What we know:
By secondary structure, the protein is α/β, with parallel strands linked by helices.
Amino acid sequence: xxxSALITGILGQDGPYLAKLLLSKKYKVYxxxxxxxxxNFGNLDYLGITDKIDYIEGDMSDESSLINVIKVVRPDExxxxxxxxxxxxxxxxxxxxxxxxxxxxxxxxxxxxxxxxMTRFYQASTSEMYGIxxxxxxxxxxxxxxxxxxxxxxxxYAHMMTINFRESYGLFTCSGILFNHESPIRGIQFVTRxxxxxxxxxxxxxxxxxYLGNLDAKRDWGFAGDYVEVMYRMLQEKKPNDFVVGTGENxxxxxxxxxxxxxxxISDWQKYVVSDARFKRPAEVHELKAKPDKAKKxxxxxxxxxxxxxxxxxxxxxxxxxxTKSDLADSG
Length: 332
Ligand code: NAP
Ligand code: G4F
Protein backbone atom coordinates (compact mmCIF):
# COMPACT_ATOMS: atom_id res chain seq x y z
CA UNK A 1 0.00 0.00 0.00
CA UNK A 2 1.28 3.48 -0.81
CA UNK A 3 2.32 5.75 2.04
CA SER A 4 0.77 9.12 2.87
CA ALA A 5 2.53 12.34 3.82
CA LEU A 6 1.31 15.68 5.08
CA ILE A 7 3.44 18.70 4.15
CA THR A 8 2.88 21.95 6.00
CA GLY A 9 4.26 24.97 4.14
CA ILE A 10 3.36 23.29 0.82
CA LEU A 11 3.19 26.63 -1.04
CA GLY A 12 6.70 27.79 -0.04
CA GLN A 13 10.02 26.88 -1.63
CA ASP A 14 10.78 23.46 -0.11
CA GLY A 15 7.19 22.16 -0.03
CA PRO A 16 6.85 21.81 -3.82
CA TYR A 17 10.28 20.13 -4.24
CA LEU A 18 9.48 17.67 -1.44
CA ALA A 19 5.98 17.01 -2.79
CA LYS A 20 7.44 16.28 -6.22
CA LEU A 21 9.91 13.81 -4.70
CA LEU A 22 7.24 12.04 -2.65
CA LEU A 23 4.85 11.87 -5.62
CA SER A 24 7.63 10.21 -7.63
CA LYS A 25 7.76 7.60 -4.85
CA LYS A 26 3.98 7.05 -5.16
CA TYR A 27 3.04 8.76 -1.91
CA LYS A 28 -0.39 10.25 -1.43
CA VAL A 29 0.53 13.86 -0.64
CA TYR A 30 -1.59 16.19 1.50
CA UNK A 31 -0.65 19.87 1.55
CA UNK A 32 -1.68 22.08 4.45
CA UNK A 33 -2.56 25.62 3.43
CA UNK A 34 -3.69 28.60 5.43
CA UNK A 35 -7.19 29.89 4.95
CA UNK A 36 -6.99 32.31 2.08
CA UNK A 37 -9.37 33.91 -0.29
CA UNK A 38 -6.72 33.48 -2.97
CA UNK A 39 -3.87 31.00 -2.30
CA ASN A 40 -0.71 31.32 -4.39
CA PHE A 41 0.01 28.05 -6.21
CA GLY A 42 2.81 29.62 -8.31
CA ASN A 43 5.63 27.44 -6.93
CA LEU A 44 3.63 24.22 -7.33
CA ASP A 45 2.67 25.33 -10.86
CA TYR A 46 6.38 25.90 -11.60
CA LEU A 47 7.01 22.21 -10.83
CA GLY A 48 3.79 21.13 -12.56
CA ILE A 49 2.22 19.35 -9.57
CA THR A 50 -0.59 21.66 -8.34
CA ASP A 51 -3.34 19.20 -9.28
CA LYS A 52 -1.61 16.16 -7.79
CA ILE A 53 -1.97 17.24 -4.16
CA ASP A 54 -4.88 17.02 -1.71
CA TYR A 55 -5.22 20.31 0.16
CA ILE A 56 -6.41 20.77 3.71
CA GLU A 57 -6.75 24.01 5.65
CA GLY A 58 -4.76 24.58 8.81
CA ASP A 59 -2.81 27.33 10.49
CA MET A 60 0.24 26.81 12.70
CA SER A 61 -1.04 29.42 15.14
CA ASP A 62 -4.41 27.69 15.61
CA GLU A 63 -4.16 24.48 17.66
CA SER A 64 -7.69 23.29 16.90
CA SER A 65 -7.05 23.49 13.16
CA LEU A 66 -3.93 21.34 13.53
CA ILE A 67 -5.79 18.77 15.62
CA ASN A 68 -8.41 18.61 12.88
CA VAL A 69 -5.77 18.17 10.15
CA ILE A 70 -4.05 15.31 11.99
CA LYS A 71 -7.35 13.61 12.90
CA VAL A 72 -8.62 13.77 9.32
CA VAL A 73 -5.41 12.80 7.51
CA ARG A 74 -3.56 10.51 10.01
CA PRO A 75 -0.57 10.43 7.65
CA ASP A 76 2.37 8.04 7.81
CA GLU A 77 4.69 11.04 7.72
CA UNK A 78 4.46 14.74 8.56
CA UNK A 79 6.99 17.20 7.16
CA UNK A 80 6.66 20.44 9.08
CA UNK A 81 7.99 23.09 6.71
CA UNK A 82 5.55 25.88 7.63
CA UNK A 83 7.18 28.92 9.19
CA UNK A 84 7.56 32.65 9.17
CA UNK A 85 10.92 31.93 7.59
CA UNK A 86 12.33 35.37 6.84
CA UNK A 87 14.92 36.25 9.50
CA UNK A 88 14.77 39.99 8.81
CA UNK A 89 11.03 40.17 9.53
CA UNK A 90 11.40 38.25 12.78
CA UNK A 91 12.50 41.40 14.68
CA UNK A 92 9.52 43.31 13.33
CA UNK A 93 7.12 40.39 13.98
CA UNK A 94 8.66 38.61 16.96
CA UNK A 95 5.36 37.49 18.51
CA UNK A 96 3.96 36.10 15.26
CA UNK A 97 7.28 34.38 14.52
CA UNK A 98 7.24 32.77 17.97
CA UNK A 99 3.61 31.64 17.67
CA UNK A 100 4.09 30.07 14.24
CA UNK A 101 7.65 28.74 14.47
CA UNK A 102 7.75 27.68 18.14
CA UNK A 103 4.27 27.18 19.63
CA UNK A 104 2.88 25.89 16.33
CA UNK A 105 5.35 23.01 16.48
CA UNK A 106 4.28 22.17 20.03
CA UNK A 107 0.63 22.14 18.87
CA UNK A 108 1.45 19.86 15.93
CA UNK A 109 3.50 17.45 18.05
CA UNK A 110 0.70 17.29 20.63
CA UNK A 111 -1.88 16.57 17.94
CA UNK A 112 0.30 13.71 16.63
CA UNK A 113 0.83 12.33 20.14
CA UNK A 114 -2.90 12.33 20.87
CA UNK A 115 -4.42 11.33 17.53
CA UNK A 116 -1.79 9.63 15.36
CA UNK A 117 1.17 8.48 17.47
CA MET A 118 2.61 6.19 14.76
CA THR A 119 3.12 9.18 12.43
CA ARG A 120 6.77 10.00 11.74
CA PHE A 121 7.59 13.69 12.10
CA TYR A 122 10.19 15.88 10.38
CA GLN A 123 10.96 19.33 11.79
CA ALA A 124 12.58 21.99 9.58
CA SER A 125 15.36 23.14 11.90
CA THR A 126 17.97 25.59 10.73
CA SER A 127 21.60 26.66 10.83
CA GLU A 128 20.26 30.02 12.05
CA MET A 129 20.00 28.29 15.47
CA TYR A 130 23.82 28.33 15.67
CA GLY A 131 24.05 32.08 15.21
CA ILE A 132 27.41 32.80 16.80
CA UNK A 133 27.56 29.43 18.60
CA UNK A 134 31.02 27.96 19.24
CA UNK A 135 32.61 26.34 16.28
CA UNK A 136 35.97 25.59 14.72
CA UNK A 137 35.01 27.39 11.54
CA UNK A 138 32.07 25.04 10.91
CA UNK A 139 28.89 23.81 12.61
CA UNK A 140 27.85 20.20 13.19
CA UNK A 141 25.40 18.34 15.46
CA UNK A 142 27.64 19.03 18.50
CA UNK A 143 27.95 22.80 18.04
CA UNK A 144 26.32 25.06 20.67
CA UNK A 145 23.32 27.16 19.76
CA UNK A 146 23.56 30.94 20.17
CA UNK A 147 20.79 32.28 17.92
CA UNK A 148 20.86 35.97 17.00
CA UNK A 149 17.27 36.59 15.88
CA UNK A 150 13.73 35.97 17.16
CA UNK A 151 13.50 33.53 14.23
CA UNK A 152 16.52 31.54 15.40
CA UNK A 153 15.31 31.55 19.01
CA UNK A 154 11.85 30.23 18.05
CA UNK A 155 13.49 27.51 15.93
CA UNK A 156 15.65 26.40 18.90
CA TYR A 157 12.46 25.98 20.96
CA ALA A 158 10.88 23.89 18.19
CA HIS A 159 14.06 21.85 17.75
CA MET A 160 14.30 21.04 21.44
CA MET A 161 10.57 20.25 21.63
CA THR A 162 10.98 17.82 18.74
CA ILE A 163 13.75 16.05 20.67
CA ASN A 164 11.67 16.17 23.86
CA PHE A 165 8.67 14.41 22.28
CA ARG A 166 11.04 11.68 21.11
CA GLU A 167 12.61 11.30 24.55
CA SER A 168 9.41 11.72 26.60
CA TYR A 169 6.82 9.83 24.56
CA GLY A 170 8.85 7.65 22.19
CA LEU A 171 7.50 9.37 19.07
CA PHE A 172 9.46 9.10 15.81
CA THR A 173 10.47 12.77 15.59
CA CYS A 174 13.50 14.08 13.68
CA SER A 175 15.07 17.44 12.93
CA GLY A 176 17.05 18.36 9.86
CA ILE A 177 19.36 21.26 10.68
CA LEU A 178 19.48 22.62 7.17
CA PHE A 179 21.83 25.33 5.99
CA ASN A 180 20.64 27.87 3.39
CA HIS A 181 19.17 26.28 0.30
CA GLU A 182 17.91 28.14 -2.71
CA SER A 183 16.27 27.65 -6.10
CA PRO A 184 14.43 29.51 -8.85
CA ILE A 185 11.32 29.45 -6.59
CA ARG A 186 13.10 30.91 -3.56
CA GLY A 187 11.10 33.75 -1.96
CA ILE A 188 11.98 37.13 -3.43
CA GLN A 189 13.00 38.64 -0.05
CA PHE A 190 15.92 36.23 0.48
CA VAL A 191 19.24 37.60 -0.64
CA THR A 192 20.03 35.08 -3.40
CA ARG A 193 16.73 35.50 -5.22
CA UNK A 194 16.73 39.25 -4.61
CA UNK A 195 20.10 39.36 -6.38
CA UNK A 196 19.18 37.12 -9.34
CA UNK A 197 15.88 38.95 -9.83
CA UNK A 198 17.77 42.27 -9.58
CA UNK A 199 20.29 41.18 -12.22
CA UNK A 200 17.46 40.26 -14.59
CA UNK A 201 15.64 43.55 -14.02
CA UNK A 202 18.82 45.55 -14.61
CA UNK A 203 19.59 43.51 -17.73
CA UNK A 204 16.18 44.27 -19.26
CA UNK A 205 16.12 47.91 -18.20
CA UNK A 206 13.43 47.56 -15.52
CA UNK A 207 15.74 48.72 -12.70
CA UNK A 208 18.99 50.63 -12.51
CA UNK A 209 20.12 49.77 -8.96
CA UNK A 210 20.10 46.82 -6.54
CA TYR A 211 19.87 47.80 -2.86
CA LEU A 212 21.47 45.31 -0.46
CA GLY A 213 22.58 45.09 3.19
CA ASN A 214 25.68 43.33 4.53
CA LEU A 215 27.77 42.05 1.59
CA ASP A 216 30.36 40.42 3.86
CA ALA A 217 28.06 37.81 5.47
CA LYS A 218 28.94 34.26 4.47
CA ARG A 219 26.50 31.41 3.95
CA ASP A 220 26.69 27.73 3.02
CA TRP A 221 24.34 27.76 0.01
CA GLY A 222 22.97 24.60 -1.62
CA PHE A 223 20.10 23.69 -3.96
CA ALA A 224 16.67 23.05 -2.38
CA GLY A 225 15.99 20.13 -4.74
CA ASP A 226 18.98 18.28 -3.26
CA TYR A 227 17.99 19.01 0.34
CA VAL A 228 14.44 17.61 0.29
CA GLU A 229 15.95 14.18 -0.46
CA VAL A 230 17.55 14.21 2.98
CA MET A 231 14.23 15.06 4.70
CA TYR A 232 12.71 11.96 3.12
CA ARG A 233 15.69 9.77 3.98
CA MET A 234 15.60 10.81 7.63
CA LEU A 235 12.06 9.49 8.02
CA GLN A 236 12.95 6.13 6.41
CA GLU A 237 15.65 5.37 9.01
CA LYS A 238 15.20 2.65 11.67
CA LYS A 239 15.60 5.19 14.48
CA PRO A 240 14.77 8.89 14.75
CA ASN A 241 17.80 11.14 14.64
CA ASP A 242 18.90 14.73 13.92
CA PHE A 243 21.20 15.72 11.07
CA VAL A 244 23.13 18.75 9.85
CA VAL A 245 22.69 19.27 6.10
CA GLY A 246 24.84 21.61 4.02
CA THR A 247 27.55 21.62 1.39
CA GLY A 248 30.58 22.16 3.64
CA GLU A 249 31.69 25.31 1.81
CA ASN A 250 30.62 28.91 2.18
CA UNK A 251 30.68 32.10 0.12
CA UNK A 252 30.06 35.76 0.86
CA UNK A 253 27.05 37.69 -0.39
CA UNK A 254 29.57 39.71 -2.43
CA UNK A 255 30.81 36.55 -4.19
CA UNK A 256 27.21 35.62 -5.00
CA UNK A 257 26.57 39.12 -6.39
CA UNK A 258 29.70 39.10 -8.56
CA UNK A 259 28.94 35.68 -10.04
CA UNK A 260 25.26 36.47 -10.63
CA UNK A 261 26.11 39.66 -12.54
CA UNK A 262 28.71 37.72 -14.56
CA UNK A 263 26.12 35.07 -15.51
CA UNK A 264 23.76 37.91 -16.44
CA UNK A 265 26.42 39.26 -18.82
CA ILE A 266 27.12 42.39 -16.71
CA SER A 267 30.77 42.77 -15.67
CA ASP A 268 30.73 46.02 -13.61
CA TRP A 269 28.44 44.98 -10.73
CA GLN A 270 29.78 47.77 -8.46
CA LYS A 271 28.03 50.30 -10.70
CA TYR A 272 24.62 48.86 -9.79
CA VAL A 273 24.84 47.62 -6.19
CA VAL A 274 24.06 50.14 -3.45
CA SER A 275 24.63 49.56 0.27
CA ASP A 276 21.39 50.29 2.11
CA ALA A 277 21.06 50.34 5.92
CA ARG A 278 17.41 49.22 5.66
CA PHE A 279 18.62 45.73 4.78
CA LYS A 280 21.14 45.39 7.63
CA ARG A 281 20.06 43.42 10.71
CA PRO A 282 20.11 44.43 14.38
CA ALA A 283 22.30 41.38 15.05
CA GLU A 284 23.97 39.57 12.16
CA VAL A 285 25.01 35.94 11.78
CA HIS A 286 28.33 36.60 10.10
CA GLU A 287 29.32 33.18 8.90
CA LEU A 288 27.80 29.71 8.60
CA LYS A 289 29.44 26.57 7.23
CA ALA A 290 28.14 23.03 7.67
CA LYS A 291 30.07 19.91 8.52
CA PRO A 292 27.55 17.39 7.15
CA ASP A 293 29.62 14.24 7.85
CA LYS A 294 26.85 12.47 9.77
CA ALA A 295 24.30 12.86 6.95
CA LYS A 296 26.88 11.75 4.41
CA LYS A 297 27.79 8.66 6.42
CA UNK A 298 24.44 7.48 7.82
CA UNK A 299 22.08 8.71 5.10
CA UNK A 300 24.51 8.33 2.22
CA UNK A 301 23.57 11.87 1.18
CA UNK A 302 25.57 14.30 -0.93
CA UNK A 303 24.48 17.45 -2.75
CA UNK A 304 24.54 17.30 -6.55
CA UNK A 305 24.35 20.98 -7.53
CA UNK A 306 27.48 23.10 -6.92
CA UNK A 307 27.50 26.75 -5.82
CA UNK A 308 28.30 27.98 -9.34
CA UNK A 309 25.62 25.77 -10.90
CA UNK A 310 23.10 27.08 -8.37
CA UNK A 311 23.84 30.75 -9.15
CA UNK A 312 23.69 30.04 -12.89
CA UNK A 313 20.38 28.14 -12.57
CA UNK A 314 18.78 31.01 -10.61
CA UNK A 315 20.06 33.76 -12.91
CA UNK A 316 18.90 31.90 -16.03
CA UNK A 317 15.44 31.31 -14.55
CA UNK A 318 15.04 34.99 -13.61
CA UNK A 319 16.33 36.21 -16.99
CA UNK A 320 13.73 34.01 -18.68
CA UNK A 321 10.93 35.11 -16.33
CA UNK A 322 11.67 38.85 -16.56
CA UNK A 323 12.17 38.70 -20.34
CA THR A 324 8.80 36.98 -20.82
CA LYS A 325 7.13 39.65 -18.66
CA SER A 326 8.77 42.55 -20.49
CA ASP A 327 7.97 40.98 -23.90
CA LEU A 328 4.33 40.66 -22.85
CA ALA A 329 4.29 44.28 -21.66
CA ASP A 330 5.80 45.45 -25.00
CA SER A 331 3.17 43.59 -26.99
CA GLY A 332 0.50 45.45 -25.00
P1 NAP B 1 9.09 29.50 2.75
O1 NAP B 1 9.30 29.53 1.28
O2 NAP B 1 9.04 30.78 3.50
O3 NAP B 1 7.73 28.69 3.03
C1 NAP B 1 7.14 28.67 4.29
C2 NAP B 1 5.69 28.25 4.17
O4 NAP B 1 5.12 28.31 5.49
C3 NAP B 1 4.83 29.14 3.27
O5 NAP B 1 4.18 28.33 2.33
C4 NAP B 1 3.83 29.77 4.22
O6 NAP B 1 2.55 29.85 3.73
C5 NAP B 1 3.80 28.76 5.36
N1 NAP B 1 3.30 29.38 6.58
C6 NAP B 1 3.73 30.55 7.15
N2 NAP B 1 3.01 30.82 8.26
C7 NAP B 1 2.09 29.83 8.38
C8 NAP B 1 1.06 29.56 9.30
N3 NAP B 1 0.79 30.37 10.33
N4 NAP B 1 0.32 28.43 9.14
C9 NAP B 1 0.54 27.61 8.09
N5 NAP B 1 1.51 27.82 7.17
C10 NAP B 1 2.28 28.92 7.32
O7 NAP B 1 10.19 28.60 3.46
P2 NAP B 1 11.16 27.48 2.80
O8 NAP B 1 12.39 28.15 2.31
O9 NAP B 1 10.37 26.60 1.94
O10 NAP B 1 11.61 26.71 4.13
C11 NAP B 1 10.84 25.63 4.62
C12 NAP B 1 11.13 25.45 6.10
O11 NAP B 1 12.51 25.20 6.30
C13 NAP B 1 10.81 26.66 6.97
O12 NAP B 1 10.35 26.18 8.20
C14 NAP B 1 12.17 27.35 7.16
O13 NAP B 1 12.17 28.06 8.37
C15 NAP B 1 13.07 26.14 7.20
N6 NAP B 1 14.44 26.35 6.73
C16 NAP B 1 14.65 26.89 5.50
C17 NAP B 1 15.95 27.03 5.02
C18 NAP B 1 16.22 27.60 3.67
O14 NAP B 1 17.38 27.97 3.41
N7 NAP B 1 15.25 27.65 2.78
C19 NAP B 1 17.03 26.58 5.81
C20 NAP B 1 16.77 26.03 7.04
C21 NAP B 1 15.47 25.88 7.49
P3 NAP B 1 2.04 30.99 2.73
O15 NAP B 1 2.46 30.51 1.38
O16 NAP B 1 0.59 30.94 2.99
O17 NAP B 1 2.69 32.26 3.13
O1 G4F C 1 18.95 35.27 2.33
P1 G4F C 1 18.84 35.66 3.75
O2 G4F C 1 17.69 36.52 4.14
O3 G4F C 1 18.87 34.30 4.57
P2 G4F C 1 19.18 33.94 6.10
O4 G4F C 1 18.99 35.10 6.98
O5 G4F C 1 20.52 33.27 6.14
O6 G4F C 1 18.02 32.90 6.42
C1 G4F C 1 17.70 31.86 5.50
O7 G4F C 1 18.48 30.74 5.80
C2 G4F C 1 18.26 30.17 7.11
C3 G4F C 1 19.23 29.00 7.24
O8 G4F C 1 20.46 29.47 7.73
C4 G4F C 1 16.81 29.75 7.20
F1 G4F C 1 16.58 29.16 8.40
C5 G4F C 1 15.91 30.95 7.03
O9 G4F C 1 14.55 30.54 7.06
C6 G4F C 1 16.20 31.57 5.67
O10 G4F C 1 15.80 30.67 4.67
O11 G4F C 1 20.17 36.41 4.20
C7 G4F C 1 21.44 35.83 4.01
C8 G4F C 1 22.52 36.85 4.36
C9 G4F C 1 22.32 37.53 5.72
O12 G4F C 1 23.55 37.59 6.37
C10 G4F C 1 21.85 38.94 5.37
O13 G4F C 1 22.20 39.93 6.32
O14 G4F C 1 22.47 37.89 3.40
C11 G4F C 1 22.59 39.14 4.07
N1 G4F C 1 22.01 40.19 3.22
C12 G4F C 1 22.69 41.24 2.69
N2 G4F C 1 21.85 42.04 2.01
C13 G4F C 1 20.72 40.30 2.87
C14 G4F C 1 20.61 41.48 2.11
N3 G4F C 1 19.65 39.50 3.11
C15 G4F C 1 18.46 39.87 2.57
N4 G4F C 1 17.40 39.06 2.76
N5 G4F C 1 18.32 41.03 1.84
C16 G4F C 1 19.37 41.88 1.58
O15 G4F C 1 19.22 42.90 0.93
